[in-house]
Design brief:
Layout (H helix, E strand, L loop, with lengths): L6 H25 L1 H7 L4 E2 H8 L3 H13 L3 E6 L2 E6 L1 H6 L9 H15 L2 H7 L4 H5 L6 H5 L3 H23 L9 E5 L5 H9 L4 E6 L1 H10 L8 E5 L10 E7 L7 H14 E11 L10 H13 L7 H10 L3 E6 L6 E6 L1
Parallel strand pairs: 4-5, 4-7, 5-6, 7-8
Antiparallel strand pairs: 1-3, 2-3, 8-10, 9-10
The protein binds S-adenosylmethionine.
The site of S-adenosylmethionine has 16 residues, from loops.
């Protein structure tokens, strides 16, 4: 029977209001609340936080109190006044000075992803992304559309870097990659995964291959690894000759593309790969029956609103890889967001 105590009604209320929680995190990040608190010698009163970020005091109080309930901040009362400080979560992931900060990813989600999700129903109706309708930019060329401006490209590249500072080790140690001294990270962005690869497998050399404008932006605006065992090569992986390698890494690449484009890319990788070499696909894997994990299902909807691709099951990837010629397919679920697949030529 329907009542306010009905667990179904409570769950529905949580779902309906979930976007407000995301917005609290995004706004606190955008305003620099966690940074002001990280720089302060101790907990700060509302007025000091508001002054530090240039915001209204009475509005800031509501934001800070919501952050406390979300465990993003802690509060202590002194003489009847509230003093706020970062929690462990915000110190590690939300303050910009932290090496594992996820701020750029949150800001990218706030400025880009969130707007695309506003047209989810229409994307499902039409079966395609909503870039043109959301931003007024034609989506003919996926990646020129994804980066509406140089600023957005920098933010997206920094955002992509951030995840590997937390999740990189788990995907790169899912298999022993020490068998592959020459590695090519296709669509490797600013080289964050390459850097992790070198830490874990010090004998290897990694070539990071990405679009010319992305490599240039990475070198000019994003901190790229300054390592003699990492080199950058500009090119289009659908058209240009691929660097020679024993192992090709495709991290968060195939999920951007429809099956036909994936097959085209995988066939090109197969032809460039040395015999006995391998391909490491890093993606968030759907369960075989597609009933979960929920986060991967949501990411697949995200691919619908933002790209031409989707998240896939292990057997879907196996079919794509084996029709390109790869054999010895293995996959490992890491238990984290991203999983790993290894196949051999
Ligand atoms: C979703 S990002 C993944 C980046 C990186 N592999 C990671 O996991 O952080 C996709 C990457 O593919 C690159 N890319 C897209 N189309 C490409 C193309 N035709 N040739 C080379 N790189 C491309 C993009 O510039 C971007 O860096």
């Amino acid at each position: 029977m329907s009542s306010p105590e009905d667990p179904c009604y409570r769950l529905l209320t949580d779902y309906a209001n979930g976007f407000m929680v995301s917005q609290v995190v995004f706004a606190a990040c955008e305003l620099g609340v966690f940074d002001v608190l990280a720089e302060a010698p101790g907990p700060l009163a509302v007025a000091a936080v508001a002054a530090g970020v240039g915001a209204s005091s009475h509005a800031m109080e509501r934001l800070l109190d919501a952050c406390v309930s979300l465990k993003l901040l802690q509060v202590e009362m002194r003489g009847g006044e509230a003093f706020y400080g970062n929690t462990e979560m915000s110190r590690i992931y939300l303050s910009r000075v932290s090496p594992t900060s996820q701020c750029n990813m949150l800001l990218y989600m706030a400025k880009t992803t969130y707007h695309c999700w506003g047209r989810l129903a229409q994307a499902v109706r039409e079966g395609k992304n909503q870039y043109l309708q959301t931003f007024g930019v034609p989506a003919d060329e996926l990646f020129s559309a994804i980066y509406r401006s140089e600023g957005e490209r920098v933010q997206f590249m920094q955002a992509l870097r951030e995840l590997w500072s937390v999740d990189g080790r788990s995907v790169l140690t899912a298999f022993d990659l020490s068998l592959f001294p020459l590695v090519c990270d296709l669509g490797g962005g600013a080289g964050a995964l390459a850097e992790q690869c070198l830490c874990l497998y010090p004998g290897c050399h990694v070539t990071v291959f990405d679009l010319p404008e992305v490599v240039r932006t990475a070198k000019e605006h994003v901190s790229v690894p300054e390592e003699e065992h990492i080199s950058f090569q500009e090119g289009d992986f659908f058209k240009d000759r691929l660097p020679e390698a024993d192992l090709y890494i495709l991290a968060r690449i195939l999920h951007d593309w429809a099956d036909g484009r994936c097959s085209q890319l995988l066939e090109r990788v197969y032809h460039s790969c040395k015999p006995g070499g391998g391909i490491l696909v890093i993606e968030s894997l759907l369960d075989e029956d597609r009933r979960g994990p929920l986060l991967t299902q949501l990411y697949s909807l995200n691919m619908l609103v933002q790209t031409e691709g989707q998240e896939r099951t292990p057997s879907h990837y196996r079919a794509l890889l084996s029709s390109a010629g790869f054999r010895d397919f293995q996959f490992k679920k890491t238990g984290l967001i991203y999983d790993a697949i290894l196949a051999r030529k």
